[in-house]
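Board work, copied verbatim: DUF2961 domain-containing protein
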Amino acid sequence: MLNDICRLQPGIRTKRISSYDRTGGNDDYIAIAAGTTAELAMMEGAGIVKHIWITLNCEDSFIRRNAIIRMYWDGEEEPSVESPLGDFFGQGFGEAYNFVSLPLAAAPQQGKALNSYFSMPYGKGARITLENQSAEPIKSFYYYIDYEVHPEMPETMGRFHASWRREITGVQKEVGENEWATLGASENNPSVAHNYVFADIAGSGHFVGINYYVDNPGPMWYGEGDDMWLIDGEDWPGSLHGTGTEDFFNSSWCPNETYAHPFFGYAKVPDRIGWMGRTHCYRFFLQDPIRFEKSLHASIEHGHDNCLTLDLSTVAYWYQTEPHLPYPALPAKELRGNMPVITERDVHLWRHEWRKAKGNASTLWGNEK
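↓ predict structure ↓
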């Protein structure tokens, strides 16, 4: 990755657009009123965005989900990047926490400094915006956008894309949430029909990463789901077929601990009952991008045979030729909120209903069949 650091490249200039105080004072930020969109940067000609740094101050504790970042290349009208701010930079659920990877990071204090090191080329200009969909103003928004100016951009340079998706997944079989065959024999799933789709791409390019945020309302392991990749219109099982969610994220045996590798890891795990609660996994394909010439359909099961109800949200990252398919419309901010936290009280109520179903004997323990 450092091979080119010593290669001199005459004709390329380094520039920055930032929120510095134009008067020479120390008010080095902009304010973004509720319900408005700020243009953070407008670049002309050819270049590459090399680094973005952001921090912000807002009374809305959910601003990381209520603010939307968008990026446009080469005069396009539909953004190539569209995502809630926190989700894009590796903070799910509207929360602030530290996150470490090679291309993206949320740095101290407590993950309040958002960084991207993805290279983002453009040939005929670029524009980056931030929409504040909160009811509260962003009182101070600090940012750097560091970029290079190039004489021209080769046609072989793909354009950077990122798209946020979310789904409350449904149970597909009458037997119910049958993870680990707890409720009966498991069935097969020779299809992507009911999988959670995190990328549906038309064009030529390569896929380079995913942030995967899962909120699990039950204590059972959420991750028997296989990742499935259909390249250039091929049928199931496709060119790449996985063996389980944790395997896809380069870990094993149902992990529930934080771990940070430059390419993969677990930035957030729940401290609840079993695997109940919010988990953030990530995987970047920086040495092994998934290449496609015409299209890519990427999905993952939510539990084996799609047997679990989960709150899944993702940001997928890739490079491709333009034009790209329009992204699914972002849900209104009222529909982007978290699902309610399942509490110990809820679990106790489940137990109460189970006791009644078992005859309410005074010594029922909890594992009686």
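The mean pLDDT is 96.
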